[in-house]
Known about the structure:
There is one protein chain. The chain is an alpha/beta fold. The chain has one domain (4-68, 75-82, 91-174): DNA replication regulator HobA (Rossmann fold). It contains eight helices and five strands. It has a five-stranded parallel beta sheet with strand order 2-1-3-4-5. Helix 4 (55-64) links the parallel strand 1 (45-50) and strand 2 (77-79). It is globular. The relative contact order is 0.20.
Amino acid sequence: MPDFAQWSLDAIREEGGSLSWLEEYRFEWSKTTAFALEQILNGKTIILITDEKRKWFENYILSSINGLLLERPLIPIISIDNIYTHYNSVSGGEIIDIIDDMISLSYKDDYFFWYIGKGDDKRSDIAKRKDESYFWIFDEDFNNAFTLKSYDTDLDIKLLQLYKLFDASLNAAMFGEVDASS
């Protein structure tokens, strides 16, 4: 069984020119995504957070990851906005602590945050507090993050391509085609 880094490289090359931009970032992709896949395979719930400009992408992920035609087990995923509808109004560490405590109690610490958006957006604050969080973050280097540029004119296309690869990676890990822990 191939390790995840090699599997990712093969999957990127299989897509041809459309994903060629990702080949030079494959190690960052592999490291961060393998960690997220392990957490999913261990039964953790994904709490998805995006900045406001990427709300469309959040909706896309939520409607696609457990689509009707998929032949895999359902993935536990929820938006932070469905957990706390006033999340946009949150500012300050104390209220974030309260929300984090509520989430920890509700999910018994079997969850991780997946944040997609600008690094300096306040919606990222709760995810940045957890070492297990998974990031597709813009304009900032951060632990366990795959970094993109917010000013990239092809950013939306790249996000869709990344999701397609993430979905294929999830299938491969779930069905034993790749070892996500390597």
